[in-house]
Amino acid sequence: LVAMARLALLLAALLAACAARLRPTRATFLVETNSLKVNFPIELRGAYAASIGNFGRTFYGGTLSGQLFYPGVNSLHTTDSPWGCEPFHYGQDTFPPAQRGMARVVVVDRGDCYFVEKVYYAQQAGAEAVIVADDVESDTFVMMDTPQDDPRNPDKHLSELAANITVPSMLVLKSTGDMLKDALRDGKDVLMTLDWTDSVPHPDARVEWELWSNSNDACGAKCDAQKTFVQNFGGIARVLERGGYTRFTPHYITWFCPEEYRSSTECLSECIAGGRYCSPDPDDNLREGYEGKDVVVENLRQLCVFRQANATGEPWLWWSYVTQFGVVCTMADNTYGEQCAERVLSNLSPDWDLQATRDCVGDPTADRPIAVLDAEQQAQVGDDATGRGDVTILPTVVINNAQYRGSLTANNLLRAICAGFEEHAMPDICSTGSQGGESAGSSAINECYSSNHGGCWHTEVPGVGNFSACKDTPSSYTCECPEHFEGDGRTCAPKDECSNLQMCSCSRCRCESVPGGPLNPAFCTTEPLHCTAAAGYQGCFTDHANGVHGNMTCVDVDRVGSAPPTSRCECPRGYEGDGVSCVDSCDSGAVECKCKHCECYAGPITMERPSKCGCKKGYLRAEGVAAGEEGSCVSAGGASGGADMGTLVLIVCVSVGLAGAMGFGFYKMRLRREMDGEIRSIMSQYMPLENQQQQNGGMMVGRTQFGLDDDDDDQLAGGGVGGGAL
Q: Model-level pTM greater than 0.70?
């Protein structure tokens, strides 16, 4: 920090000395202002000056009508801080809605934090414009600028806050601020108009404007924003220049090292031409990396490029060179310098005179003045006659001698430039879209159609076509290698398409490319099978006598990772060996058949013969016994003994049933025969009585007619009395 403070003090002293040497009677820095017109209350009506903030959006050439709000007074919450140094607790609900057709304008007090913090937090609370009221009694203005990030407080990303501010901001004198706040405290509505119509002079039909910048690309967010702006605005600038609407001049800030400091480490590292022209060290490290004098030399070269392009009637080529140099030649890539710059210039135009550029730059190490840089130091100091102020901020835009204030974006700057034309003299680009937009005019310029392809890699393939890494974008272009090529866009080489094996995803696919071809095209092809009859099945084992052929022992192997497809030999089941030489397991003794009637089969194990052990001729396999084990083979003649027990039991049961049925039938027939014989015998005993009765005149009635049994018959036959009674 001490070293940085010392460098800052030295820079301030050098700038003061520079101004004093060039303009002894004047050293001025003008704060650009706009008008704040109070419309109500009536007693405050009038115009008041305000300085324009150097961040956010400035409505050049326009006005904004709004109602004023003051935190803690006419906000929705009395606890809101009037300084606005931290986010408002209630966010978008901090302030009530403005009157119909009015914007919400918020006034905050100066002090306790950076300007960008106040404006950003007010914007987050719904402010559409922000006024900062000075807290110091003075009749002069200060400019609200974007600070560098505070190394003592790394959590405060000030440059990031500034980049996200999109509303206009201004600072008013303490007297003006007190007047406005008192009216709000009295409960009055304050209505006003913020006016930027005269912030940029507009004397005629052509706008003269300048861009003060630096070729350093290692200063962090500011350098990145400047490089982005150049890329985005290049197309618009070329449209304006080609149409004759503007006259553009680039400038670069340098300072000289006083005599008493020229032998110091700082001046030797940061200055050229004997200490006459200096620039800060890009990375604030005087011991390594690029030095400030490297930046001064490149600044000088870019000025020479503009002068050379302007002399040929094509001043817009400066935009092409600076854009390409910013993409191709960077400090981060260690390509920043003369060699890379001349490569860009060679691509810029086939007729570009490199020697003229070298002569303009001259010898930076020589201890003598350089006219081009002397003119820059002279232009850096303000001019009372034109009302132009000193240029001390990077980057700075000057439009018709008035310094531009606000975020440096293509859209914002185009609006400011358009405000510099006299009435009815604005070009069409000023009314394109929303004040031109970020891509306004860029469609009219396509660097990729130029002969140098924007400085990007390009080649011509005879019979195929032209290939370029230049890719047009809405606001500029980028360098990206086309399909089939790889690189950083500045240099491209044919891509090895087969380096990515995923492009051929099938297991037997192979990537083939054309070696040495300009496009090195690649395509997928299928790997041929190795195990074929034509290839002799790679010499794998065969045993034709026992049904073993090469298609059984040769196996194709698919790709694994980067290994190509191949083949291998394997012995079939029932054999042992390395696949080229195999021995039957029966011959090697590896298979032991234990049963008495088993034998080992020769040949492979197959679905039809799943085991090497089988039964000898005349024997069959027994169910439920493992092949080769004792009892697994039985005689074919005793097959019934080994038949299924269930079937045998069924046969026996059926036989017994049939025999029983036949015996019962025979018994029943015999019993019936005997009964019939007895009946005939009994009947024969009675047949004579019946005949006798019939002979006696029919006096005797058959017993059966009266239902008498044998006992009754006996009684009748043996009792005379009974008989006499009848």
A: no
